[in-house]
Amino acid sequence: MKTVAVLGSTGAIGTRTLEVVDALGGEVRVSVLVAGRNMSVLAEQVKRFQPELVSVADEAARDELMLKLSGASKPEVLVGDEGLAACAAHPTDVVVNAVMGARGIRPALEAVRRKARLALANKECLVAAGSFIMEAARASGAEVIPVDSEHCALFQCMVAGRPDEVERWILTASGGPFRTFSKEQLEHVMVADALRHPNWSMGQKITIDSATMMNKGLEVIEAHHLFNAPYDKIKVLVHPESIVHSMVEYADGSVMAQLATHDMRLPIQYALTYPERVKLPWPRLDFAQYNQLSFAEPDMERFPALRLAIEAGRAGGLAPCVMNAANEIAVEAFLQEKIAFTQIPELVEGTLEAMAPGTAQSLEEVLAMDRQARDYARRVAYGA
Ligand SMILES: NC(=O)C1=CN([C@@H]2O[C@H](COP(=O)(O)OP(=O)(O)OC[C@H]3O[C@@H](n4cnc5c(N)ncnc54)[C@H](OP(=O)(O)O)[C@@H]3O)[C@@H](O)[C@H]2O)C=CC1
Ligand SMILES: CC(=O)[C@@H](O)[C@H](O)COP(=O)(O)O
Ligand SMILES: [Mn+2]
What does the UniProt keyword field contain (predicted)? Predict the structure, then answer.
């Protein structure tokens, strides 16, 4: 039996991870849970899975959880980012990192340093600190198995050949809810419109990233680190149906694609059971429902966030860290209706210009730059 820590257990990926654990029956035991502030959901998860260790955002959340657990058996409950890191460091076979944002850096490192399998949904940790995390994984021999649907697809497509035989890693993008919008239309979109993803039901931050296409930019950098892929060989292709999750083209011109329904339980399950494939009862792809699968080049004029992210990835050093930090603040400000949709990439670009990021010598420098970029972007967005 495998033991697993689920970081971000109350979120979109976290709750689906627990569905997969349930469906796998006795094969996996949840021994650690981490959530932020949704104590109603967390309390039910604690009662159901009986973890030995839990962490929550702060003391207020811990008090609320304890009240909700009165009468039930209680795990040890930690708090804050220290608690999150301690949960990733707690001995388990697998760590599912499904918290949002650069907060995921420390737990990713803790997991790979102790050679746990890192089932990685949190893409921001690789964007900001990918070299450090992948280097630590190489040093310990830890497996990093992508949960992000495109990277899970690439990972599966790569069993067909050697890494040095890959000519292109092709990341598909839905294009988001505004795929066909003009620049003028994009200036007036509302939060509720941006939160309506055409295919996937996800947390708010990644849903906005999909709408700006920043998500695909983050995924280009994620692919660069996961597969040691040069940026020249990573291509983004708009595929509105989100059925082909990504593709790998080999030197001989053969293209391997992974297709499936839009259901994150599949990549989660794959990351938990790899190298085994297990039959679980999720709906299957019904080809007869799709009379066409379409593909197009992305438009970086209308979606400048994609261009900014790719440029930051190519620049390397601290640029992706600054870009990611500014984007997290910009998305939060958009969700709070403090800035317009089209100001998200503007704030990212302005922060990159202001910070003039250089090289990253240490993880401490990355974390310091993350804080600095956030402070700057916050001041601009909120005018404080
Ligand atoms: N959703 C998806 O389909 C996909 C997501 N991803 C990536 O996976 C990650 C998670 O995404 P998603 O599940 O959609 O996000 P959600 O916003 O749905 O979930 C985020 C989780 O993080 C928890 N959290 C918030 N604050 C803290 C804190 N201070 N300490 C500890 N935990 C905290 C939340 O807890 P609470 O709710 O209790 O406050 C919640 O459990 C992101 O990096 C995203 O880009 C990648 C591919 C697909
Ligand atoms: C489910 C998943 O992996 C998301 O990253 C999804 O792919 C977002 O869709 P976009 O292609 O619109 O960014
Ligand atoms: Mn994805």
Answer: Isoprene biosynthesis, Magnesium, Manganese, Metal-binding, NADP, Oxidoreductase
